[in-house]
Design brief:
CATH architecture: 2-Layer Sandwich
CATH topology: TATA-Binding Protein
Number of strands: 6
Oligomer: single chain
Low-confidence stretches: 13-23
Strand content: 25-35%
Distance between the termini: 77 Å
CATH class: Alpha Beta
């Protein structure tokens, strides 16, 4: 039989393990988020980012000179755990900030979760995959021949 001290210790260890899984390291970039600098014109980068988001199943809801923002359904599990009776949906939001620099176009990507009418903050899991996705966008942009 497990005594009270053992139960307390086990619960504390379980809580610590769960919290460690939630903490994601900050990216080693100036913004602390996923980012790349692409040697290509702004219009070309914006177009490729727009298309790449559509290819990942996002609906682009904003596209202007400095921001491309897109949303998609987060799926059943987040809806069950994060939604509410009045708003059962959970939505992922991808925000890509674009800024022209001397080196090219700097693209910074952050992902957020919204559910039940609440902003649940930044999604920090999956940053390695997001960085790989950004690197593929960079390769695509820099491989294209832009006519000026």
């Amino acid at each position: 039989m497990i005594d009270t001290n053992m139960k307390t210790t086990l619960c504390t260890l379980l809580a610590a393990a769960l919290l460690c899984g939630c903490a994601a390291p900050k990216m080693n970039t100036p913004s602390g988020a996923n980012e790349v600098t692409i040697s290509a014109p702004m219009s070309g980068v914006r177009s490729i980012v727009f298309g790449a988001l559509l290819d990942r199943g996002y609906l682009v809801t904003r596209a202007d000179d400095l921001v491309v923002e897109a949303r998609k359904d987060a799926g059943l599990t987040p809806a069950i755990f994060l939604g509410t009776a009045s708003d059962p949906n959970a939505t992922r939001i991808a925000r890509c900030n674009l800024m022209e620099t001397d080196a090219g176009v700097r693209v910074v990507v952050r992902a957020f979760m919204v559910a039940g009418g609440r902003d649940l903050g930044e999604i920090t899991g999956g940053r390695a995959k997001t960085q790989e996705w950004l690197e593929r966008i960079k390769q695509t942009c820099e491989a294209k021949r832009y006519e000026f």
